[in-house]
Model the fold of this input.
Amino acid sequence: MVWVIKTKHKNDQGETVGLELESEDGWLDANVRWDGCMEIHLYLVTEERRELSDTFHTCDLQGLIERLQSLDAVCRSFFESQEGGGEDEGRGDGGAADLMDQ
Done:
């Protein structure tokens, strides 16, 4: 994915303290501060328009990525196990507890 720097925010000493970036496909943009905190915007992009879909804030991007990857792994494991005709057995779901039946 290619990111385009739209704006650089500088302090009184001329140091960059924030960036506004946009993904080349227009699906994401981010306002990133010098301390690693950021606001990320997700867009619904169609031929006619680009509409804000969701916004979230994080100061731990790597932690967020790890949690999303874990969520992805659990979901894949669960649904792939159903392709074989049954539910996942023995917590082979990567750690997902089935709370729906409780």
Residues 66 and 72 are 10 Å apart (CA to CA).
